[in-house]
Design brief:
By secondary structure, this protein is of the alpha/beta class. Helix content is about 20%, strand content about 30%. It has seven helices and 28 strands. The strands form eight sheets. A six-stranded mixed beta sheet has the order 16-13-17-21-20-18, with helices on both faces. Strand 24 and strand 25 form a beta hairpin.
């Protein structure tokens, strides 16, 4: 029986990052930046008012703390104004937030420091030089790296790219994942199952899991348990995928036939891995590009756990994530759990927080049956139980993998 770490190591060794592509910044969210984006202009690009108020020379209002200073208001500048204006000594210009400052002005007096008069304003408090002014380049200077290579592109990075005038950016694209369900007993959810038939759960659930991991997903859907047909479908998907996931066909009489059919496309290794649920699984590299291909159990709950442990880290590694694994924390057990000796347990649970002391608590969910999908739907974490442990008591500390989801 192969260890979890050895099987995962084989999968991660197959990670291939797709070649960078240039996309519009509106499409770049969630990807990794593949270049150092150098600002070609300063941000802000000009001195501008940080508040609504009056642009002044700070020297003209330095005595306002002792006696109010009266200044004539010689104009008004709106945000977006392109008409140059020059301020003379002893004058003020009304400005709104974002408006360019007139020449010689080095500060803005907020309206709250004045009487707000539109023609002859009384300044009641002094302001130092540069007060309430956004200086040219104080955020980003020309030549600065605005977004670095390898940085995840989120809302702030998209905003910064727009602010420095970058319409497109080079990114590492999402790896393409094809998801296939195998089985003559399967029907799609728009049909009514007949005697002995069940809905195709796996292609939907695994496609959602791959999408949550950051992949671009093609849900192929159901392929009958026909080795020739399966080989044809897989071969076609190898040309369009960085990862292929096949649910079904790793156990029972069909397993050997499917492995033999896929072996015509490359190396496929079906084995037992020291974990539960999902011990029986397969992995290989198929096609001329040696595309990583996973064979998962037909049981939806087991398939999702194997996906979480084996496939998700590969998707994250193919994206270039520095740490492709989930966050693992320590929590105190609220109910006892049992685990199978010699196998690493991945047990469904709810992670909670003790409001009185901030301690993490974890409540196991459901029974131990690997077929119980409803309890996985309620879970927000997996309790990790090592291979040598068979029982964990209430109050003991356990390692917990937090199943955070996007959105």
């Amino acid at each position: 029986m192969r260890s979890v770490d050895e099987q995962l190591g084989r999968a991660l060794a197959a990670a291939v990052r797709p070649a960078p592509v240039r996309v519009a910044i509106a499409e770049a969210q969630g990807m990794l930046c593949a270049e150092d984006v150098v600002a070609e202009r300063a941000l802000p690009g000009f001195d501008q008012a940080a508040v609504d108020g009056y642009a002044v020379r700070s020297v003209d209002v330095q005595s306002a703390g002792a006696d109010p200073v009266l200044l004539p208001v010689v104009g008004e500048i709106a945000a977006g104004s392109r008409q140059p204006r020059r301020l003379q000594p002893g004058q003020a210009v009304r400005v709104v937030t974002g408006a360019p400052l007139p020449t010689l002005a080095d500060a803005v007096v907020p309206i709250g420091y004045t009487d707000g008069h539109p023609a002859r304003v009384t300044v009641q408090q002094p302001v130092p030089s540069a007060a309430f002014v956004r200086r040219t380049g104080e955020d980003v200077q020309t030549g600065d790296v605005a977004v670095r290579r390898g940085s995840p592109i989120g809302a702030a990075q998209v905003g910064l790219l727009a602010a420095v005038g970058k319409a497109k950016v080079l990114v590492y694209p999402r790896p393409r994942v094809s998801v296939i369900s195998v089985g003559d007993e399967l029907v799609d959810i728009d049909r009514t199952p007949g005697q002995g038939q069940v809905y195709d759960v796996n292609s939907y659930a695994l496609a959602a899991a791959a999408r949550d991991a950051g992949a671009e997903v093609n849900r192929v859907g159901i392929v009958p348990a026909d080795t020739r047909k399966l080989r044809e479908v897989v071969e076609s998907r190898l040309l369009l995928s960085e990862i292929v996931v096949i649910a079904g066909g790793v156990g029972g009489e069909l397993a050997e036939e499917i492995s033999a059919a896929l072996s015509e496309l490359g190396d496929v290794d079906t084995t037992r891995v020291a974990m539960h649920p999902g011990s029986v699984q397969g992995f290989g590299r198929l096609g001329p590009d040696a595309v990583p291909t996973f064979l998962l159990p037909s049981n939806p709950m087991s398939a999702l756990v194997v996906f979480e442990v084996m496939v998700r880290p590969l998707i994250r590694a193919a994206q270039g994530k520095r740490n492709p694994h989930r966050r693992v924390i320590t929590a105190r057990l609220l109910s006892p759990v049992t685990s199978t000796k010699g196998r690493r347990g991945f047990l469904r649970a709810q992670l909670l927080r003790d409001e009185s002391n901030g301690e993490y608590l974890v409540q196991p969910l459901g029974m131990s049956g690997s077929h119980l999908l409803a309890s996985l739907a309620e879970a927000n974490c997996l309790i990790l139980v090592d291979e040598e442990t068979t029982e964990v008591a209430v109050g003991d500390e356990v390692q917990v993998s937090f199943l955070a989801q996007r959105g």
